[in-house]
Amino acid sequence: MNKLFVYVDGETRGDSGEAGIGIAITDKDGNIIEEVSRLIGKATSQVAEYRALIEGCRYALPYSPQSVIFFTDNQLLANHLNGVFETREPHLKHLIETAKGLLNEFPQWRVNFIDRNANRHAPHLVELAFHNRVQTRIKQKHLELRLLSCAASLSKENMERLIDYAEHLQGED
Questions:
Q1: What is the pTM of this model?
Q2: What stretches of 25-65 show up as alpha helix (H) in DSSP?
Q3: Enclosing H/E stretch for 22
Q4: Bridge-based pairing state of the strands 67-72 and 32-43
Q5: 151: closest CA among 138, 160, 142, 139?
Q6: Which of 81, 75, 109 lies closest to 95 in space, CA to CA?
């Protein structure tokens, strides 16, 4: 593949809260090649942005493009990676070094700042990661309620068998 465009975004719920990343990789014609929508644990919004770009690099590298243009709606991120500004924050320095190391594996690259409205796809993927987490929690609660409902009508003997089986299943995890 000759040229790739990688749209990235990272967001948190609360400052230094649960974080997610969204990555959309397209070819030169705008066809989506790959999408990433994932939660990454607890982080600040700035860390989430850097992690999105780092993961964007990792997902783009296997395509061996000659040129990659990364798009972000975080101007500070673009300025740091393009060498316009330096950071004094040690945890960001490490992320910048990691990102630059990955970026330098591409023959040609650049990181462009774009308006959030032009970067709609990546933030949508972040929102999808948060939405999927909520849906998973709802399904888990529903299953717990079903189990409690079934267990309430069991005899003492069958309740003990259910507990033994549940403990056996926990040992398998």
A1: 0.78
A2: 45-60
A3: strand 17-27
A4: unpaired
A5: 160
A6: 81
The domains located in the chain, with CATH, are: 3-133 (3.30.420.10)
Q: What confidence tens digit (pLDDT) does each residue in 18-30 have?
A: 999 999 999 999 9
**DSSP 8-state symbol, 107:** S
Q: CB neighbours of 11 closer than 8 A, spacing ≥ 6?
A: 19, 20, 22, 45, 48, 123, 126, 127
Angle between helices 90-103 and 45-60 (to 10 degrees): 20
Alpha carbon of residue 173 to chain centroid: 25
- pLDDT tens for 116-144 read 888 889 999 999 988 876 676 777 787 88
Angle, CA of 78, 104 and 90, to the nearest 5°: 55
The yes-or-no verdict on residue 15 having pLDDT over 90 is no
